[in-house]
Amino acid sequence: MVNEIGYGAHQTIDPVYKLRIADMDSLFRLSLRRKGINLEVASVLSVDSDNKLVAGDARLRSAAGLDSITVCYNLLSGESYVAYFSPPDKYIFDRMKGIVLSTAAIILLIAMAFMYLFHTVSRLRTIEEMKDDFVSNMTHELKTPIAIAYSANDALLNYDTGNDPSKRENYLKIANRQLKRLGELVENILSMSMERRKTMKLKPETIRLGPFTEEIAAAQRMRGGKQIEIEVEADGDVCVEADRTHLTNVLNNLIDNAIKYSGESVRIVVGLDSKGISVSDNGIGIPQKSLPYIFNKFYRVPHGNRQDVRGYGIGLYYVKSILDKMGWSIDVKSKTGEGSVFTIKFGKNG
């Protein structure tokens, strides 16, 4: 009924009063403003039943990026109003700005909470690793002198050394040196704990590498379990400035790994010259894909289902850390099944 009354009114009034499209423009904009909608473009055209322009700005019909709504106001003639207006995206965003900003703030707070939680968990994990690091260092560093001292003591108990004073004295000296080293290692392990590692002080002294290395090799030859051959090749009387305790630990780690990662027998050659120290063996070798990671903390080279090789992935990390602190470097060349060569290069002494 309302539509019919409107159509009738248009049929009666339109022939008398001509269409004033400017008034429609004003009414359209006024209606939008009352609703709080302010658009850059808001205008009305009138078209006939064939969609030909009757009144209004023709440029609006070819303008890009405008939305439009068509309302037929004369059913008999088919004339319609076409309202053109800018897309209301900006208006909608302005109305929703408070909701969008508050939602973004909540998401940001949640992200910050997750970051704080991740940081806290990571810190707790670091503390756990610090404890494991200390225990692993203690186990790894103490087992070698204990094994050597045990072997010397076992020889004294189970073999007829009473009739050979020189051999008995030699075994007792070996055991005594290893017990002394155990005492040094206790302090060394404490100093290598994560809390004190950054402030650890080295005590450099002049070391004659030939006798020094031969003493380490002699102790390592005492280990049981497999046939061990260790040869020291020195290029002259080589001397170096280094911390005796830590350099002992470094060489013991490298020789210990060579013995551990080998077959029933192993041949190790320790080369000494003015440029550095090399430790080569004929063991099982290291896969090429593992070589870049062997000095990383806790990294262990995978060896399939072998259960006879145990460790914590801390020995070579310790070696690299100490050599870095000395200003020296270390690299490795290895091939699976053909053994490995670890080369220590002196810094200012090279």
UniProtKB/TrEMBL annotation:
- Keyword annotations for this protein? Kinase, Membrane, Phosphoprotein, Transferase, Transmembrane, Transmembrane helix, Two-component regulatory system
Annotated GO biological processes are: cellular response to phosphate starvation
Entry EC no(s): 2.7.13.3
Catalytic reactions on record: ATP + protein L-histidine = ADP + protein N-phospho-L-histidine
> Which Pfam families does this one have?
HATPase_c (PF02518), HisKA (PF00512)
Q: What GO molecular function terms would the record report?
A: phosphoprotein phosphatase activity; phosphorelay sensor kinase activity
Q: Transmembrane region positions?
A: 99-118
List the SUPFAM superfamilies. Answer: ATPase domain of HSP90 chaperone/DNA topoisomerase II/histidine kinase, Homodimeric domain of signal transducing histidine kinase
GO-annotated cellular components: plasma membrane
Q: Which residues form the Histidine kinase domain?
A: 137-350
Q: What class of enzyme is it?
A: transferase
In terms of PANTHER family, this protein maps to: PHOSPHATE REGULON SENSOR PROTEIN PHOR
Q: What is this protein called?
A: histidine kinase
Q: Which organism is it from?
A: Duncaniella dubosii
